[in-house]
Amino acid sequence: MNKRCDLDQAVRGIPDGALLGLGGNTLNRAPMAAVMEMARQKKRGLRLVKTAGGMDVDLLCYAGCVASVDAGFISYETEYSLCQHYRKAVQDGRVRANEHACYTVISALRAASFGIPFMPVRGLQISDLAAVNDYFQPVTDPFSGETLNAVKALRPDVSVIHAQLADERGNALIEGPKYDDVLLSRASRTVIVTAERIVGEEAFAASAQKADIPHFLVSAVVHVPRGASPGACAGLYGVADANLREFLGLGTPEELESWLARRVSHGQAL
Amino acid sequence: MGRPCDVMTVCLARLIRDGETVFHGVSSHMPMVATLLAKATHAPNAVHLNIPGGVDPHKPRLVSYTSAGDDLLETAEAAFPLQEVFDLSMRGGLDVAFLSGVQFDRLGSVNASVIGDYPRPKVRLPGGAGSAVLIPTAKRAIIWRTKHDRRTFCEKVDFVTARGHVSDIVTPLCAFTMYGGELILKTIHPGVSIEEIAENTAFPIRYLTLEQTPPPTDEELRALDHIDPLHTRNLEFR
Prior knowledge:
heterodimer, A: alpha/beta, Glutaconate Coenzyme A-transferase, eight-stranded mixed beta sheet, 15 strands, 25% strand, B: alpha/beta, 25% helix
């Protein structure tokens, strides 16, 4: 089945209030074009899931799209400092920060991918995170009696993953670091793939390198060259410093809208 | 005396012992360079683990915007992604985890989460990343922090993101170590006085013996220039 569509159409399939997994890690291979299109379409109430997020989470908070963020770390890395829109939204009570250890996001996604309601983890022995968050609960090993912490499963309604290569049926290959994206694809109800390059139907069958994400897990495929920019995409491009700094300099909602309008137009990345 | 970033990086590198498994995460340029430095000098058999999953990257081209970029995998010998690094720590196989935070107290508590109340904080911090599971499970958690003042080294942290196996904390002024469940002064960096450390630390300064941090050697400085020609180890001081 040909699942290729444009960005506008793919993003329209994400309902307001969705539990949304985002691929990549901080400024590396995050699905930025799709994120900008979500902001342009004024999505509301999204509940984001990611081990370590950066500009993607910051931009969606800036655009008022977010209800909560389940993550271990939300910040630009050293050079670009903190995610000010995310911080402000949490401090003002507009966004709920569900702080995880990165591993507990992984554990929550593993539970979802295994089809079980929680995952026991070590760690968190001495942490206020376990006390203040209801998604961590003590659990007793029925065999030894040892107490561990249970992490509640997180099953994203949809995850958006940016890959270097995909075919029209949805088979997708991630070159370089895969971060948590393969797990995310297994844990989610469905996956939207944006890809730098669309390859022919026979390409994966003829190659020794097989797709990481098989077509049957994927509902939409979008061809988006530079789809992770201003972030980096392994093997293809680094961070677009000037664009990123321009974004960091924006202040009002109107400034964001006009910045977005110069980058996405009716689902086409410009 | 050396720049603070060089003294700190060298101090972190010397804490790594030959043959140990060592992990650093995002926003961690200084420990990334320290790990590469340890491998280039006294600890060639240390195992460098990271988020992209590259085991022992060879001369990665360090970039300023990430310490979790593709070069760490591209130039590596084997793939061992983040999920598996955590699993390794859970089963007792991770020797060293490098972590940070914004508040620390004398019990070795780390706060990287919030200033003020958790649900409606005065300041929302980036979060502890792997701290809450790594600090209790790694054999040693080594902390670096480029700020050393009374708000950072405070009497009591606002929120305990994690406590556990913190073994050492390195700052621009000194190195602390945990001794009998308490953070004590281990060495004072060149050009720093104990009075300066006491003035900038909200808990009492205690120590067993008082020694100076040996300044970076010529060999270490040469290796640093080779590993990190863009001085990404200095990013947090810019």
